[in-house]
Amino acid sequence: MKHFEKFFSFLSIGLIILAITADSSAGTLSGIKLAIDPGHGGQSGQTYNGLPGDPGAIGPTGLREADCALTIGARVRDLLTAQGATVYMTRASDVFVSLSGRTNLANSLAVDRFVSIHQNASSSQSANYTGSHVYTSASQNSKDLASKTVNELDLYHKIGVVSTNIGIRGVHADNFHVVRETNMPAQLVENSFISNPTEEQKLKNISHLNSSADAIFKGIMTHLGKTVPSDAVPPVISHSAVSQAQEGSALQISATITDASGISSAKLYYRARGTSVWTSVTMVKGAGEIYSATIPSSIVTPSGVEYYIEASDAFSPSNLGRLPSGSPVSPFIVNVTASPKTGTLQGIVSDQTTGAKISGAEAVISPGGQKV
Ligand SMILES: [Zn+2]
Fold first, then answer.
1. Which residues, other chains included, contact 205 with Cβ-Cβ below 8 Å and sequence gap of 6+?
2. What residues are paired with 132 via a beta bridge?
């Protein structure tokens, strides 16, 4: 196993160097493949391909390890993908996948690194520390990956580590399936203790899970010799304002939205003029970096329409950008031309604006724009 793993480590490093040389402009992790493995999964009492669901450890008030692992894993995936990596999830929903199913996937895809994500548990409720596990005859790359990850997790959690059996702070050697049967450098992260009542409450907060994911991401980046981005810049939103419309015509709103860390969400907010409540709709990514959504025709009445665009990047802490920058207080305003009433306003028809959209000056939130 030892020589086998070393061979693959050597091979994968060779591939990484070739890929970066070939296409370094596409992202700092371009050409690198990783498998993210959220531990456990599925509901108790249900079966998945004939295997019983496995919630993992359960916190004092019922929080499931499987759910924490999936939320953290999905964000690690998003952060790595934003840097240009190709990321495969062993599971991306609440299902159970066998341990061999997880390692077979990583081996068949020949990923460069394998990261399994778990929450630890103990019969002692006071126990709470962070750590990572590698195989008993792990490669140096596995140990370095785990060590760098633990360092970042401990910087964030500040809950410390416990003594180790291989002389690397917070890293433990164990005969666990997913670190033994993977052909590439691999670690199994135990983020913190879900059995600790205080920690369980923190784990119910999405920002704690996100920050845990960010620490794992930073550990992977540092291990790979990459600079961790420090992104405090909101997404850049480029959009030609729609200033006029025809009554009863739905308005498609499109914007080019970009960010160095990638976009995690883009939303269109709209309302009829004179009303107070905004309706939001997710803008769908199309070709290039163009995001689009539609204001329904029922809103497009002679009283007019107001709208603005809001986007968040994939960095943590997330940066939020809005266009126009004064929104929602000062949104875009669309003047709506009334449709003619049959038999009474026929003379106006020839003066009607036929196009639903008129492009105005392009407005942009600059990269140095205010962080909202
Ligand atoms: Zn677990």
1. none
2. 171, 189
- Quote the pLDDT of residue 316: 73
Residue 39 Cα, ligand 1 centroid: separation in angstroms?
Answer: 5
pLDDT confidence of residue 277: 94
The amino acid that residue 212 corresponds to is S
- DSSP SS3 for 348: helix
Give the contacts of 19 (CB within 8 A, at least 6 positions apart).
30, 31, 32
Inter-residue contact 169 to 161 (CB < 8 Å): yes
Tens-place pLDDT, residues 116-174: 999 999 999 999 999 999 999 999 999 999 999 999 999 999 999 998 899 999 999 99
Cα–Cα distance between 32 and 15 in angstroms, integer?
8
Q: Which residues are catalytic?
A: 190
Instruction: Classify residue 175 as exposed, middle or buried by CB count within 10 Å of its CB (0-12, 13-18, 19+).
Output: exposed
**286 C-alpha to ligand 1 centroid (Å):** 38
Do residues 132 and 146 make contact, with C-beta atoms less than 8 angstroms apart?
A: yes
ipTM entry: 0.99
Give the chain's residues under pLDDT 50.
1-26, 343-372
As a whole number of angstroms, the distance between CA 210 and CA 206 comes to 6
Rg of the Cα trace of the chain? 25
- Cα-Cα-Cα-Cα dihedral of 256, 257, 259, 261, to 10°? -120
Strand intervals (E) in the chain? 33-38, 47-48, 51-52, 86-89, 113-120, 131-134, 171-173, 186-193, 236-242, 244-246, 251-258, 263-272, 279-282, 284-285, 290-295, 305-313, 320-323, 332-337, 359-364
- All structural domains of the chain, each given as residue ranges with its CATH number in brackets, are 2-223 (3.40.630.40), 236-339+347-364 (2.60.40.10)
Q: How far is the CA of 57 from the centre of ligand 1 (A)?
A: 7
